[in-house]
Amino acid sequence: MPASLNRVRALRSQRGVALMEVLVSILIFAFGLLGLIGLEASAIHYSADAEDRNRAALFAGEVASSMWLNNSVTPTAAQLATWNTNIANTTTETGLPSGALTITPTAGTTNSADITITWVPTTDKSNAKLSAQRQLTTRVILP
To answer: Strand 100-105 to strand 134-141: parallel, antiparallel, or no bridges (unpaired)?
Structure first.
C-alpha cells in the first residue's frame, strides 16, 4: 500500500497547477492585447497626421496653380484672404486646425516664392510632442 499512498501524495501536490497555468496564460494574453491597443492608438494618430499633411499639400497645390495661372508669385490681398479662410475652415472638415498660409518671395528672384502652410493637429492636446505645430513648405518657380 505504500505505492498507492505515494501516488495519492503526488496527486495532492499537483492540485491547482492547471489553475496556475491558466492564470499565467491569461496574463500573457492580456499583455498582448495591451500591446495591440497601443499599436492601434499609434496607427490612428499617424493616420490623422497623414490626412492633415495631404490636405496641406492639396492647398499648396491650389495656391501654386493659381500663381501659375496668374503668372505672378505675388497674390492679391483678396486671394490671400480667401486661401487663409479656406485653409482654416474646420467647420466642414476641409481645412486644417489652426491652419495658416504664408507666401514668401524668394530673395534675389522675381519669379519664385515659398508657400508655407502651418497647422496644429488636434489628435492629442495632452501630449506636447503630438500637438506641436506642423508645417508644409513648397517652392514655386515661374518661367
So the answer is: unpaired
